[in-house]
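Trying the structure run again after the queue cleared.
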Amino acid sequence: MTTTSAAAPPRESAPSRKPLTSVAWFVGIMLTFTLIVTAAVVSTNAGPNLLAFPLAFAPAFIAIGLAWWEGNGAVRALLRQVTILPSRPIWYLALLIPLVAFVAVDVIAIALGEPVAGMSDGLVPAILIVPLVVLLPAFTEELAWRGFALPRAITAVSPLQAALILGVPWTLVHVGLFLPGQMNAGAAYWSMATQIMSLSVIFAWVYLGTGRSVLMVGLLHALFNGLVPITGGVDPELAWTIRGILWPVIAIAVVALGGFRGFERSSVAPVTIG
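Done. Tokens:
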């Protein structure tokens, strides 16, 4: 460990630029990029899955670029969050939330009359493969939206307000995936919006509660995407509708049970290097 004195290790300074300026640039660049890429993919009929990848990977590059622009070790501080583990082991239980949520979708569907036969067909191979496919995109999104944008947003508003505010552009980024010819074409927009806004709240809660761990929230994001096959035996439209209602219920429960209590506005904190 390198030290500047015998008493304490060196510390990275907080970013020298105004945090809200960085957030504004991040959102503006991301929405502009989304509009351009979506228009290009849709106009050329490039394929239903092509759009998802640039929209997932671009946020990390934008965030790292803006952190470099901020200076004073902001890039290192940003990337360090991928290695943070929660200091309280109970936070690992948060990784069970997606599993419980998707099983609940099945239970609700059955209660509504969905046939049980065939509900688990093909579940095992899908549940082993899909989470691996979505793992890296989940981390690149979380490094940007939670690791970069959220800490800077909470310098001006409360963590819950920041989660809701950032949820709006995060939702807009996903709209193109639901256009005709794209991977989620035909699915209800309202359910997409309620799910993403809810996940913005849930992910912010876990990110802050685990000491700003992009590692934990990236895994959580990957599980929410990767455990979709659990509901593969349910009519897709019904499952999508249930998710659009159930995810907000989970987010509201987190808030109502005091999940954001103790999380206050803060500065972009210095990070100890050692």
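The CA atoms of residues 20 and 152 lie 6 Å apart. Worth checking whether this holds up in the mutant runs.
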